Amino acid sequence: MGKVYFTPELFHFLKQLKRNNKREWFLKNKRRYDEVVKQPALRFITDFGLRLPSISTWIVASAKPNGGSLMRVYRDIRFSPNKTPYKTNVGMSFWHAGSTEEIHGAGYYLHLAPGEIFLAGGVWHPETRLLAKIRDAIAWKSAEWKKATRGLDLGGDTLARAPRGYPESHPMIADLKRKDFIASIGFTEKCVCGESFLADVNAAAKKLAPMVGFLSRAEGLQF
To answer: What is the pTM of this model?
Structure first.
């Protein structure tokens, strides 16, 4: 028997927050947020962290209330035309302990929102030097990259033209044009609220692990 972490009230709360994305409403419903979103998410992070060593001892799951794997509900609106103050999803980040790029290095990201639930793995928006290392690793170890990504549907942004140093005729040009190196596995709301959700996320993380491992090693890290 598994453990139930989240209830349908999680998605009900997020839908209401999307309709009432104002500070006054959130403050009135802060206790609900803590009960149906924050505390269940921290319990999930704790238990997922106990399973992660079977995938890699380098991936961090931190259940700290602030500054850990659970991402802030508050949006950074300084440079955004969208001035709504709160995120209407739950985000959890699991990063590589050795990386200097917690957000933009290799790792996992769990996203919970009404109608949009997935575990993503890989590297999102890597900085220029890491991006060059990843492209070189794909070019030099193309067979290993193909094996690591077999059966995965890679997403993210791509270049329109070949990156500098690589001809358009390169056999790996489709992947060398990538600006992100990510793949995701989706879930249903019913799954999130069921007893097998932790096991399902763990299985998805294992499926994504060869790619996350390849990208970690491209950065010069162990996995």
So the answer is: 0.94
